[in-house]
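Fold it.
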Amino acid sequence: MIARQTFRLASPLQHGVRRYATDGQPRSRWAQAGKFGLYAFGSSFAIFAVFRYVTATPENIEKFRAQYEKQLAESKSSADNSATTANDGKPANKTFKGGDQGWVDLKLESVEQVNHNTKKFRFALPDKDDVSGLQIASALLTKYKGPEMDKPIIRPYTPVSDEDARGHLDFIVKRYPNGPMSEHFHSMDPPQRLDFKGPIPKYPWSPNKHDHICLISGGTGITPMYQLCRAIFSNPADKTKVTLVFGNVTEEDILLKHEFEDLENKYPQRFRAFYMLDQPPEGWMQGTGYINRDLLKQVLPEPKVENIKIFVCGPPGMYKAISGPKKSPSDQGDLGGILKELGYTKDQVYKF
């Protein structure tokens, strides 16, 4: 255990291109009904496998593999349907439908202090059996107009709750000086209400769309990255490898660190996280300073590797240094910064 922890902490300095071995055993968040079906299938199929072992041939082995993968896919489909079906058997209502739906005001249900400048906000959906209606990857717009404001403030936020979570939405919001929307969030108390609209589609994800994705993030830019990770590692059929590079000021500022450590422990051959701190504590064994060229060259796959995608999300200064800024919410703009210097192409990079 000590050797494993030392390897994990020192890896940014010891390793170049990421290497993976056999995938770790996944732990899904399927609905209970889906779990029961899969466990029942697993038990019966294991008995069948022992019985067939004595007559194993290449043809029987291939037939066994095909039957297993078919049953696994059917079990996952059943679990997904169960997760989006209300208690009465009807499809769960989606709170956010997009299009011309307009704004939906939600009641703040609870507030949790995360660190010195970050809180977690839970908003209740209109009905306890409702789901949000968000896809991977997508966000919601928020709107607030103070009594002395000429026009409302509108900002996008990505929830950190599961897309199939019933009855609520969770957001992690860092308070920024002179950030009017983040300051309004932090001034709220239950049961105040806030306007939301969406979903706002970002990068459409499907299982195994890329062999390897790399997430470069700073501050609360981590939330869309976490959304992608949840989708990938909750789906046993998705074998995508993920590398996270996350920059912050202090160790306390690393949001969702426990969740990422959990993924790294469960999927050590498929998920790795590298952290950079401007103000590291004594004994810190990962990177210091800003996310830089040397680190990215070390931990990202080579630009010539096929079917990779690099995602970037963070403050404006980080975009400028890493990938170049977006021109607008709908225009990715030209690729610039360190990623261009390292030889990546515009098609290999997506800016949230």
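Confidence is low (pLDDT under 50) at residues 1-55, 72-83.
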